[in-house]
Design goal:
single chain, 208 residues, mainly alpha, Serine Threonine Protein Phosphatase 5, Tetratricopeptide repeat, two-stranded antiparallel ribbon, 10 helices, 2 strands, 63% helix
Amino acid sequence: MQLPRFVGLVDLGIATVLVVALVLPAREMFASPAIKGDEPHQFAIALAEARTIANPNDGQAVEDFTRLLGDAGMKDWAIEASVAASEHATDSPTRWRTLLAASAAFVGRLDVKPALDYANRALSACESAQAQIAITGACPSWEEIRMQLYQQHLEAGVKSGIDPRRDPAGFRRAGETALRSIRLGGHDKERGSGAGSANGSAGSGNTP
């Protein structure tokens, strides 16, 4: 049979595909939540995300949202959300919280170098917020101290050159070298007297 000039093999192929698509039943599709967990947990994450959308300059909302994402194992999403928030909240007095959230998100993925970078940025943003006298409580001193300890721990670990993916315990020990703690407590009979008493009641050590 000779086909007309205006009908070719390509046209026949397209027509065949169309006929098959129309005749065959629709394929069954399955969907599952991107975030695992029970409904209250999923609702908490959705609510936290809604708060960041409603007020993207709210550093506390961003911190809460990314923490929940990290706890749910959505580490890449936590990094993406916190980094994007820190870039948009440049004029927010709580921008340091978004930067700290980004640092914590990178730590969750054991990317310690960018984590240290964002920790340094968070401290700088905290100091800038404190310099604005009109904004009281934008970055409380106790939050700044907590960030300084966190930053020092990270910095010491990074400077050690230890890869936390290969040796997490070694990285943690290296970070602890930058910190000192005073341990209080103990029984009186264990303290003794004189110099022994002072050593028993307050000694130096390392903290995680």
